[in-house]
UniProtKB/TrEMBL annotation, chain A:
Pfam families: PhnI
Keyword Lyase among UniProt keywords: yes
Biological processes per GO annotation: organic phosphonate metabolic process
Keyword annotations of the record: Lyase
InterPro entries: PhnI
Protein name per Swiss-Prot or TrEMBL: Carbon-phosphorus lyase complex subunit PhnI
Spans annotated as Disordered: 352-371
Lyase keyword on record: yes
Organism: Jiella avicenniae
GO terms, molecular function: lyase activity
TrEMBL record, chain B:
Keywords on record: Lyase
A molecular function (GO) term: lyase activity
GO biological process: organic phosphonate metabolic process; organic phosphonate transport
Protein name as it appears in the record: Phosphonate C-P lyase system protein PhnG
Organism encoding this protein: Jiella avicenniae
TrEMBL record, chain C:
Alphabetized Pfam families for the sequence: PhnH
Lyase as UniProt keyword: yes
UniProt-recorded name of the protein: Phosphonate C-P lyase system protein PhnH
GO annotation (BP), single: organic phosphonate metabolic process
GO molecular function: lyase activity
InterPro entries associated with the record: PhnH-like_sp, Phosphonate_metab_PhnH
Organism: Jiella avicenniae
Length: 371, 157, 202
């Protein structure tokens, strides 16, 4: 049986026209500009870049505007856009140790070289809606202080690593890193593949998973070794030059999560680490990513894998919000034929049922679907 | 080009690297204005582009370990040739075709040794100074948010 | 090869590519698709590329059309001029035989089946496509071809294939669905012999 699903063209065209109207809203109110979105909703733009997996603030701002602020829709637009472009090259790995730091804190060391720099943070605000936000009031210039001779701000994990109490960064095997945009996910996944998936994974999903590890689903006792936010140079080694050149800078957030480890047959007790690195200023996401990265390393430390956050297939197969929204949202599309088939099946089952028992009296029997 | 003698000295590649990196981070308007004076009368022929594409940005596990693919960034590249046959290339972050084209033109012009000093002075040094100034301002704003845990203890001076 | 002057190298790298990157690439892609869909047919790619040695015009055109940063290329005796040319024109890297997606080899023999990726049962497409320049199409050894894309059978004459060619094709055929695909080239012309084509001495 086939149900004709033609028609609807005019309805769809008018629905899209209505969408454009509603997106614009009251014409007496000035339209948002891309500069306004990129400048004043910068963290929304950062999320779209990170999870869209494409660093381009202007495009991300356009996507936020087009999607009426529905960030997953905006991420979808960015992902679709990136598939239309050729990839020219891969960059040299960025060096977060040479970051132009805009924020840098450590929960493990009070006095660390380079200091604790709070930067533009929501921490220590009172979370009270400010009446000023209702209007376009005066905004003071930021305070300035001469940093003097700026010494290096080493990564905290490098400081602790000197005492061999914390695991190192691991070795660079020299191979090409795995790329889930080129070959399908396969399990078991290597850490490079997991980090790529987590870096573009959904903030909310990873936040929930990270939270679950703190609540006992995956035993960890984490400390923020360091969070740093700022700009790093992107270098590309192009054949036309024969040497790496700087093509510009990107802002990233890095989180080093330090976690206690009691030791195993081969390893002495030490601190282990989870790593988070995300495009833009996205502290919550970078922290969540580092918690989940550490949880997913269970096998390396001979930890039993029992919690969802330790199950790499569960995490990697479900952390992508474009995939997730595609499969969940497709349920609203016409399923007339499937549903008709299910209806037919139900009617047949009902017809075959002895007439003695009216269905309303035995809902339990109906639910298990067998006679 | 006047001088095509082979030059085995590795120094020019370090200098060119620095110059190309500066061109890539310059403002398109600035490059165009600088071209009006330095590249006056020269024809810039397109060899390739400007065209938009992607670069996969990589990070390292733990900050210093094995590389992984962090995500892509949009880039624009261009290759040009000047009427003397010199070839210049550029790749810049973002989608500014004008910046990529002038950056490539300056790379080509820089290879003319008679032009190099003027470009280093008027373009490369200028761009580097502008970047350094912006960075210093950002640093001083961040520095004002530094936590000084010892303020309470330090009454004596 | 004498170490090239960097300036000459950069000029050579940017010359000899497609005049119209979009339409030339489409035309060559279409020619290769046609040749591989109808094995034994000689298809002219036209004079679209002037690649550095040792590539023939058709080999250069094929790499320009199909190569990019994600398709590592192996060329047996590649010099730095070819490396620079391929790098600028396509973004493809020169690699060892075991990593290659496309390879230019002087002849196809059983040794190729030991050195180039043959694909896996799960992903038979992860194999190399070899480009082999021959002395001429239309003269020389007669070969009978049959298999998908050929109505019944067809006979082609090709000179310069080497002694091991037919035996190597037989071994390749036995690896199906894995195996190597071949594009024979002669000047600007190409002839496709995908892994499915059965090649016998006529």
């Amino acid at each position: 049986m086939y149900v004709a699903v033609k028609g609807g063209e005019a309805a769809i065209a008018n629905a899209h026209r209505l969408l454009v109207d509603r997106r614009r809203g009251d014409r007496r109110v000035p339209a948002l500009t891309i500069e306004q979105i990129a400048g004043q909703l910068a963290l929304a733009v950062d999320r779209v870049m990170a999870e869209g997996s494409l660093y381009d603030p202007e495009l991300a701002a356009m996507a936020v505007r087009q999607s009426r602020g529905d960030l997953i829709e905006a991420i979808f637009l960015i992902r679709a856009y990136r598939t239309t472009l050729p990839r020219f090259a891969a960059s040299s790995p960025i060096d977060t140790g040479r970051m132009l730091i805009e924020r840098r804190i450590s929960a493990t060391y009070k006095d660390l070289p380079g200091g604790q720099l709070l930067g533009p943070t929501f921490d220590y605000t009172h979370r009270l809606i400010e009446p000023d936000m209702a209007e376009d009031g005066f905004v003071a210039e930021p305070a300035r202080r001469d940093p003097g001779e700026t010494g290096p701000a080493p990564r905290v994990t490098d400081i602790l690593g000197d005492e061999a109490l914390i695991e190192g960064d691991g070795r660079d095997g020299g191979g090409e890193p795995a790329d889930l945009t080129r070959s399908p996910l396969a399990f078991p996944a290597t850490r490079d593949l997991r980090l790529q998936a987590l870096a573009r994974g959904d903030e909310g999903f990873l936040l929930g998973l990270g939270y679950s590890t703190q609540r006992g689903f995956g035993r960890t006792h984490p400390f923020v070794g360091e969070i740093r936010i700022g700009e790093v140079e992107v270098e590309v080694d192009l054949p036309e030059f024969g040497f790496p050149v700087v093509i510009g800078r990107v802002r990233v957030t890095e989180c080093q999560m330090v976690s206690q480890f009691t030791g195993s047959k081969s390893e002495p007790p030490q601190f282990t680490r989870g790593y988070g690195l995300v495009f833009g200023q996205m502290e919550r996401k970078a922290m969540s990513m580092s918690l989940v990265d550490r949880a997913l390393r269970a096998d390396e430390f001979e930890e039993e894998r029992r919690a969802p956050a330790q199950d790499e297939e569960f995490v990697l197969a479900h952390c992508d919000n474009v995939q997730a929204t595609g499969f969940v949202e497709h349920l609203k599309l016409p399923h007339y034929v499937d549903f008709q088939a299910e209806l037919d099946l139900l009617r047949t089952m009902r017809a075959e049922r002895p007439t003695a028992a009216p269905p309303t009296e035995e809902p339990a029997a109906e639910r298990d679907g067998s006679q | 080009m006047a001088d095509v003698s082979s030059n085995p000295d590795p120094a020019p590649s370090a200098a060119r690297r620095r110059a190309v990196s500066a061109f890539a981070q310059a403002d398109a308007g600035f490059l165009e204005a600088a071209w009006q004076s330095l590249g006056e009368g020269r024809t810039v022929g397109a060899l390739r582009g400007p065209e938009s594409g992607l670069v996969m940005v990589r990070g390292r596990a733990g900050g210093g370990g094995a590389p992984f693919n962090l995500g892509e960034a949009s880039v624009t590249r261009a290759s040009v040739t000047l009427d003397d046959g010199a070839v210049g290339h550029a790749m810049v972050l973002g989608r500014d075709a004008r910046r990529a084209r002038f950056a490539a033109a300056f790379d080509a012009l820089w290879q003319d040794e008679t032009m190099r000093e003027a470009i280093e002075r008027d373009v490369v040094a200028n761009v580097e100074a502008a970047l350094a100034e912006a960075d210093a301002e950002r640093r001083s704003e961040t520095e004002a948010t530094k936590v000084d845990f010892f303020t309470m203890m330090r009454g004596e001076d | 090869m004498v170490a090239a002057n960097p300036l000459d190298l950069s000029r050579r790298a940017v010359a000899g590519g497609f005049a119209d990157p979009v339409f030339d690439a489409q035309a060559v892609f279409s020619a290769i698709l046609g040749a591989l869909s109808r094995p034994g047919t000689i298809v002219d790619t036209g004079a679209r590329a002037s690649p550095p040695a040792p590539l023939s015009p058709a080999q250069g055109a094929a790499l320009l059309a199909l190569g990019d940063a994600d398709t590592p290329v192996h060329v047996g005796d590649a010099g730095e001029t070819l490396e620079a040319w391929l790098g600028f024109q396509t973004g493809a890297r020169l690699v060892g035989a075991a990593e290659a997606r496309f390879a230019v080899v002087p002849c196809f023999d059983r040794a190729c089946l030991e050195t180039f990726p043959l694909g896996t049962l799960g992903y038979p497409d992860r194999s190399a496509t070899l480009l082999v320049e021959v002395a001429s199409f239309g003269s020389g050894e007669a070969l009978r071809l049959s298999g998908p894309g050929i109505s019944g059978e067809t006979t082609v004459r090709i000179s310069g294939l080497g002694n091991d060619f037919v035996a190597a094709r037989r071994t390749n055929r036995a690896l199906f669905p894995c195996g190597l695909d071949l594009v024979l080239t002669c000047g600007t012309e190409i002839l496709g012999l995908p892994r499915t084509t059965i090649v016998e001495e006529a």
